[in-house]
TrEMBL record:
Signal peptide per UniProt: none
Family matches, as InterPro entries: BLH_phosphatase-like (IPR005939), FAD/NAD-bd_sf (IPR036188), FAD/NAD-binding_dom (IPR023753), Prot-tyrosine_phosphatase-like (IPR029021), Sulphide_quinone_reductase (IPR015904)
Record-given protein name: TIGR01244 family phosphatase
GO MF annotation, one: FAD binding
Pfam families linked to this entry: BLH_phosphatase, Pyr_redox_2
Cofactor(s) required, per the database record: FAD
PANTHER family: SULFIDE:QUINONE OXIDOREDUCTASE, SULFIDE:QUINONE OXIDOREDUCTASE, MITOCHONDRIAL
Chain ranges of the Beta-lactamase hydrolase-like protein phosphatase-like domain: 2-110
FAD/NAD(P)-binding domain location: 151-270
Organism of provenance: Propylenella binzhouense
Superkingdom classification of source: Bacteria
Keywords per UniProt: FAD, Flavoprotein, Oxidoreductase, Quinone, Transit peptide
Record-level GO BP terms: sulfide oxidation, using sulfide:quinone oxidoreductase
Length: 556
């Protein structure tokens, strides 16, 4: 029998026949909720027939009939009460299981995050898109249908969202644009590598969101919980509805700290740190300074991740500091990478390997961090390929820098906008959604096969601006994104291997080779990273000034 579990305590399925009750009992169910009214189908057994069969197997049963499309607030309350009262696990059924799944979803509203509710239902095969507004309204039928609307709505006020808003206004300052983002602070995340190396102060990498949102853009300080693309609507917490003519999706990605067992409990102490969080980057520098001997581990999870070079940037800078202090020989550094290679674009690997050798770093490929015990200074890695696949390797450490697993935000993964991997399903050149023509995406949330870096967002923002305005008839020719991304690999204090590449690993250097040869360590590239790129970010990218980021026209 096909039981679709929504939680450990509840499964749903289509109509249960009395003759199937033995299977229900053997599956371990203690109770049944019947949500199908008697007489709905000509071949349908009555509730009394089902009740008698359940009683023979010692299964409790509750009759809560609901007509299709007519779930009342009282029905939801009764379902929730039944779930509280009945022995677990419970099996609920109707004709297809949809009404039972919907009753559960509505009864869980306010108890679970909305993406969790939608995701569980989706995994079980039930689309709760039609109930999103009601789930957002704590499971009750909305009575206040107040809506706001804007010509262009941007979800996310980070690097990509703020940049594309600025690029749009730079082209047409009459546009009606709204950014939806609950955050009060905007971070320059590329700077955290240098915070973790003692080069930048953390305060230099943050500004108030109010100072970053472009003038003339409406800032909606709430969180998006769901999308209704067929209705051109975004649903916010509390069931507020924002309508749009065109939508740009740019909320970034989710750092899944819970994806490593024991990690959240020990972050920021016991020698466990990460430059992927603003408040932890200073702890990285603290650990690097006080480490004089022992074992230092650096980890990288499966791709895709934000800035694929960041997990090893911190490793090189740490080793360089230890070398300058004369203690490098006393420290065993190891790089545990879930992937099979040091860096995905082969042209940059030889220069990086020279530093790996110089610093005496041990490379452990296809090792994915799955568990950590901070007080015991122990980490466990799972081999992800080749000989010994699936084997768990236990390793001691004195210091460990963790790059967390990463994925699309929950409310994106469960939405109609997502591809099979959970990212927004867009054309890699136009950045327009493959199904919904008035929706675009850029930044880390996009399903394009490019590196997820701030430099990529800098190049994507003008492309989205051009193509959206082309769609509106304001620009004659569309633009194309070539997959450009940049990863300044800080191999030592004062030198950088400036990796710049596009789709398929094609090298896309900004400067002639005689200025900066990106495949070799360069002092000029360090100057660019430390002195030039931060003001370019704050004063150009987020202001719609597209220095070295003019979009290429589609077709050449």
């Amino acid at each position: 029998m096909d039981y679709k579990f929504l939680t450990d305590d509840l499964a749903v399925r289509p109509q249960v026949e009395p003759k199937e009750m033995a299977d229900v009992a053997s599956a371990g169910f203690k109770s049944i909720i019947v949500n199908r009214p008697d007489g709905e189908g000509a071949d349908q057994p009555t509730f009394e027939e089902v009740r008698q069969a359940a009683a023979e197997k010692g299964i409790e049963i509750r009759y809560l009939p609901v007509a299709p499309g007519k779930i009342s607030d009282e029905n939801v309350k009764e379902f929730g009460q039944a779930m509280a009262d009945l022995p677990k696990p419970v099996l609920a059924f109707c004709r297809t299981g949809t009404r039972s799944a919907t009753l559960w979803a509505l009864s869980e509203a306010g108890k679970r995050p909305i993406p969790d509710i939608l995701g569980r239902a989706k995994t079980a095969g039930y689309d709760m898109g039609g109930a999103v507004r009601r789930i957002a309204n704590q499971g009750r039928v909305p009575t206040d249908m107040a809506e706001t609307s804007h010509q262009i709505v941007i979800v996310g006020g980070g690097s990509a969202g703020a940049a594309v808003a600025a690029s749009l206004l730079h082209r047409d300052d009459s546009l009606d644009i709204a950014i939806i983002d609950p955050s009060e602070v905007h971070y320059y995340q590329p700077g955290w590598t240098l915070v973790g190396a003692g080069v930048f102060k953390p305060e230099a990498t943050r500004k108030n969101m109010a100072d970053v949102i472009p003038a003339g853009v409406k800032w909606i300080r709430e969180a998006v919980v769901a999308f209704e693309p067929e209705a051109n609507a975004v649903i916010l917490e509390g069931c507020r509805v924002v309508r749009y003519e065109r939508l740009i999706v740019a909320p970034g990605l989710k750092l899944n700290w819970d994806g490593v067992a024991g990690l959240t409990e020990t972050l920021g102490k016991n020698g466990v740190t990460s430059n992927y969080r603003y408040d932890l980057a200073p702890y990285t520098w603290e650990l690097v300074q006080r480490t004089k001997s022992g074992r230092a581990l650096f980890t990288q999870p499966p791709m895709p991740i934000k800035c694929a070079g960041a997990p090893q940037k911190v490793m090189y800078l740490s080793a360089d500091h230890w070398r300058s202090q004369g203690v490098l020989k006393n420290i065993g550094s190891e790089f545990y990478n879930a992937g099979p290679v040091l860096f995905g674009v082969k042209e940059y690997v030889p220069a990086l390997m020279e530093y790996v050798k110089a610093y005496g770093i041990g490379l452990k490929f296809q090792h994915n961090l799955v568990r950590i015990d901070g007080p015991a200074k122990t980490a466990w890695f799972k081999k992800t390929g080749g000989e010994g696949e699936g084997e768990i390797v236990e390793t001691k450490f004195d210091m460990i820098h963790v790059c967390p697993p990463q994925q699309a935000p929950d409310f994106i993964r469960v939405s109609p906008l997502a591809d099979a991997a959970g990212w927004v399903d867009v054309d890699p050149a136009t950045l327009r959604h493959k199904k919904y023509e008035n929706i675009y995406a850029l930044g880390d949330v996009g399903g394009m096969p490019n590196a997820k870096t701030a430099a990529a967002a800098r190049k994507q923002a003008p492309v989205v601006a051009e193509n959206l305005l082309h769609d509106m008839g304001k620009v004659q020719k569309a633009a194309a994104y070539d997959g450009y991304g940049s990863c300044p690999l800080t191999v030592e204090r004062g030198k950088i291997v400036l990796a710049e590449f596009g789709y398929g690993g094609k090298l896309l250097p900004t400067f002639p080779k005689w200025v900066i040869d990106g495949t070799q360590p360069s002092r000029l590239a360090w100057y660019l990273k430390e002195r030039v790129l931060p003001p370019v970010y704050w004063q150009a990218m987020l202001k719609g000034r597209e220095y070295l980021a003019k979009p290429e026209r589609a077709g050449g």
